[in-house]
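Sanity check

After download, print the first record. It should look like this:
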Amino acid sequence: AGYYGVEGMGVTATYCSLIFTLLIYATIIQKSRNLYLRKAHEISFFDYLRGIGHLTTILIGVYLVSVIISGDRGPLISFGLLYFSGYFFVTKRKLSFKYLVVFVASGAFFISLLGIARSFEKEMSFTQRISTSLSKVDDKRVSFSPQTKELAGSIRALHSTVNYIPNRHEHLYGWFQVQNVITSVPFVNYFTSNLLDYNHFRYNSSASFVTWINQGEFPTSGDGTTCVADFYFDFGLLGVVFGMMFFGYIIRYAEFVMYAREFPTLFAHIFAVVYLGSALYLSRSAVLFELKTVVWVFIILWVNARMFHLKAKRTGTSSRMYL
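Expected structure tokens:
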């Protein structure tokens, strides 16, 4: 099964990673809002990085190196898009088509490389896994598009879902969507699974259910999921149609917020950045999965704004930068 997913992070490490991610989102969103209010619309990308802060960039770099070595690709995608979304929000510039093609092609290759590397045994060093992965990517006999073969393999999760639901298990009628909403409220999720008699691990998420379908009661790694499978678990074909229409709407709304000339509300800005930053990753997750990130980052920045308002009242200075 490879080493990825065999050993998960402990509870402390998981919460530390979550808190770090939330703080990075909050920092970049707040600093990009400050830069916008200072009318720094013509700055270069390097000036934008200086505005974000060298310490923030260094911390993100160290974090990304550690997660890349572990084989996790999600933070690399999300933080990369997070940085660019802040820059595009400040300058209102758009990425040209030729640069988009270069980024997509190189990104697909690198992400697939990490995906192949994480499937090898834990005893291999990171450089050995990358070297072996390169030889596998270059093997033209495997696929007509070896650079994206590993990414395309996620379709297996959808096949497992459609084959099992509803023939051998009824639809869950919104449970996974409700669960994603519930997890946005801190600590509430601990009580709902027992209350609704969904206390088996397969009901934790659609990814857990797919893993249970394929590996049974004692899985050795996670099989993952897709946003299409997530909707199908709950509502079947109609759920997929309307769910993906909803997904398209919120991504379009996020794009509108990022490029509108009017200064967005704090919640709308957070929502746009989080969902644009997660848009690629969500194809292999659930559409509402990042809702908790939106809510928790909003709470952090709301508390931050209230603190600066109080400080501004005491000192008689303007706090507009922190709205």
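If your output differs, re-run the checksum step. Summary of this record's structure: The CA atoms of residues 176 and 204 lie 8 Å apart.
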